[in-house]
Amino acid sequence: MAESDLHRRIDAVWRTESPKVIAALMRMVRDLDLAEELAQDALVTALERWPASGVPDNPGAWLMATAKHRAIDHLRRYQLQARKHAQIAQELDGLHDELHEAREAAFDDDIGDDLLRLIFVACHPLLSLEARTALTLRLLCGLATDEIARAFLVPEATVAQRIVRAKRTLGEADVPFEVPRREELPERLSAVLGVVYLVFNEGYAATAGDDWMRPALCAEALRLGRLLVGLAPGEAEAFGLLALMELQASRAAARTGPSGEPILLQDQDRARWDREAIDRGLLALAQAERLAARAGPGPYTLQAAIAACHARAPSVDGTDWTRIVLLYDVLAEVAPSPVIELNRAVAVSMRSGPEEALALVDALADAPALRSYHLMPAVRGDLLHRLGRFDEARREFERAAGMTRNARERSLLLARAESAAAG
Fold first, then answer.
1. CA distance 232 to 190
2. Which residue intervals define the domain RNA polymerase sigma-70 region in the entry (predicted)?
């Protein structure tokens, strides 16, 4: 195997296996920085040995075993240092027990619980949303600091600081490595799902930069979503989020043209939609709806149900817009938001026409959350254009173009403004 191919293989193994390795080490050493350091040591050893010996048949197990041996060696050294200090002699028994537990842990296969604990640590509410996102991508997706920085168009130093501060915050607060108690689980799981969806959305519709989509981030979010439903098989909203991401990602190939230009839903070639992703999404949605049958669907399940209406429709005109409006009605009750109301207005325009929808949009004009939201004037511009009010439509599209930070979207909005000007 060529050296470049080998390094790509090792990188792929690392991205897949590093979360499991770090999670297992965290259980042993109870220190996030140390767990990541020991996992990196195992990776370095692989880079040194595998070129000569070849990639093992089970590279994940090799990395896990190597990392756990490193952890046991560390605990041994810690115990020996403790013996040199008489004043902590009473702690030796505890350290001995810890070492014994670590040795036992080296043979455990409790990967699922460990990963779930690691997810809840990375998404702990003590951390800012930016810190949670960076730490999640680092620990659970295996992305390097520079990759995270490129994905979110921020300096590498900024991402590095977020990760360092996040680890320090967790360490100083002595955050336990555990799944939250039952009464805390809904709120904490909601935070985890929110981070995963944020990662997906940044990949699906980038907020800034020269690309409309960043497929690698969508792929990482989907991987986390699949991991979550495996670790929390009784949580309806975990399946709801996975369904939503699968159904939205199914359109990825049709959302951009040959030069990377955006293609709106109504102009997409539906033959290019990924039918296997749609099938996976519909299957996850069915499971979410079964699990939510008693308590009622949550916001991700409802959004997935809306996405499913698009996925099942042969065309824009053949879409069940009445059902979509009804689903938005329920969603607005479950998770009230001006953005949801704006999206509902778009669905109303497709069901009942642009005039009724424009009244709904204008009623949202004073909502603080929409004042800097570029899709507000973009939606209004579309409705005005359909009503034949072309000058007003042009101004709205130009206003939306001035508000977006994504170059591709800006070009699309300016093109729509030009089209409106031509009548």
1. 13
2. 15-79
pLDDT at 107 over 90: no
Report d(CA 311, CA 250) in Å as an integer.
Answer: 8
Q: How far apart are CA 331 and CA 297, in angstroms?
A: 9
User: Between the CA atoms of 336, 288, 237 and 308, what dihedral angle is there, to the nearest 10 degrees?
Assistant: -50
Taking only the tens place, the pLDDT of each residue in 347-396 is 999 999 999 999 999 999 999 999 999 999 999 999 999 999 999 999 99
The answer for residues whose C-beta is within 8 angstroms of residue 310's C-beta and 6 or more apart is 247, 265, 319
d(C-alpha 66, C-alpha 84), whole Å: 28
C-alpha count within 13 angstroms, C-beta hemisphere, residue 307: 27
Beta strands in 175-323 (DSSP E): 208-209
**3.30.450, 1.25.40, 3.40.50, 2.30.30: which CATH number matches 345-423?**
1.25.40
Handedness of CA 311, 312, 318, 322 (dihedral sign): negative
Identify which of 15-29, 71-85, 175-189 has the greatest average pLDDT. Answer: 15-29
Task: Decide: pTM greater than 0.70.
Answer: yes
